[in-house]
Design goal:
Layout lengths: L2 E3 L6 E3 L13 H13 L4 E3 L8 H13 L4 E6 L6 H15 L4 E6 L7 H13 L3 E7 L3 H11 L4 E7 L11 H7 L3 E5 L13 H12 L4 H9 L5 E3 L6 H10 L6 H10 L12
Parallel strand pairs: 3-4, 4-5, 5-6, 6-7, 7-8, 8-9
Antiparallel strand pairs: 1-2
Length: about 280
């Protein structure tokens, strides 16, 4: 599977990883099978959060993490209401306990809240110093938020910005993606299939995806993923609840679209003006 350097970190991470939002709603046995199949196919970047199922998803991951920790690039997120210095450290400890590990590769602030960003970053720095996390990043940050974080932490400290990004929501391409590229911050796309709003094959955009997929001997979902990770700084973390779906997602990382493919997709799904970033 194709990989790339993850923002300012030395880590080389697969372009397609695995998200776990709402995984607690799936059959647990099939969910674990899907995650294992994805890891076996190269999707070793696993993303979760204390929010997901109120900790249940982190507990679901425990068996996988305990058996394969050294193979994984493991990421979790702290809720903004837990972003104060002491509570962020305590939240990280709880996540580590639920996951059955002594460290996270990256720990993210899930979205901006009322706690001053300086305090959260101070907690993240303490967690790095203690070896509890390898690095920290942010999620759902717009350029103004990113600028504030940069002014506090300095260059090379923000590992990634995890944001909503799919064919129907490309607004980050206007300002967020260029900012992240300029400051070596990885862009991680969550909900890359649109959370149930993937283009219908009967729609104009869906027909374009079907045509490109036919030319590339792929599926429309694989084409969508390949388009989203076309930039060097972009990664994606789709969720899969079945092993065959996970393997399909993994194969998308090695798809190469040519200029005609990308032009057709770009015209079918234009990058519209910015909208407010969602929070997942």
């Amino acid at each position: 599977m194709r990989s790339a350097t993850f923002g300012p970190l030395n880590a080389v991470v697969p372009l397609v990883g695995q998200g776990t939002w709402n995984l607690e709603r799936e059959d647990p046995r099939k969910a674990v099978e899907a995650l294992e199949a994805g890891i076996d196919a190269g999707m070793t970047h696993i993303d979760t959060a204390e929010l997901y199922g109120n900790g249940r998803v982190e507990r679901l991951l425990r068996g996988i993490v305990e058996g394969r920790r050294d193979d994984l690039f493991l990421v979790s997120k702290v809720l903004p209401q837990n972003g104060a210095y002491r509570s962020a450290i305590q939240a990280c400890e709880r996540s580590l306990k639920r996951l059955g590990t002594d460290r996270l590769d990256v720990y993210l602030l899930h979205w901006r809240g009322s706690v001053p960003l300086e305090e959260t970053i101070r907690a993240f720095d303490a967690l790095v110093e203690a070896g509890k996390i390898g690095a920290w990043g942010v999620s759902n940050f717009d350029v103004d938020d990113l600028e504030e974080a940069l002014s506090i932490a300095g260059e090379g400290r923000i590992a990634c910005n995890q944001v909503l990004y799919h064919l129907g929501e490309r607004s980050i391409e206007h300002r967020v993606v260029p900012w992240c590229r300029a400051h070596r911050v990885a862009v991680v796309a969550y909900s890359p299939f649109g959370s149930g709003r993937f283009p219908s094959p009967r729609s104009d955009g869906g027909k374009v995806l079907e045509a490109v997929a036919k030319r590339r001997s792929a599926t429309p979902h694989q084409i969508a993923l390949a388009f989203l990770i076309r930039r060097a700084e972009a990664f994606a973390i789709p969720k899969a609840a079945a092993a065959e779906h996970a393997r399909e997602n993994a194969a998308a990382a090695d798809l190469e679209l040519d200029a005609d493919d990308m032009r057709a997709i770009d015209e079918a799904f234009p990058a519209r003006p910015k909208r407010s970033l969602a929070t997942l």
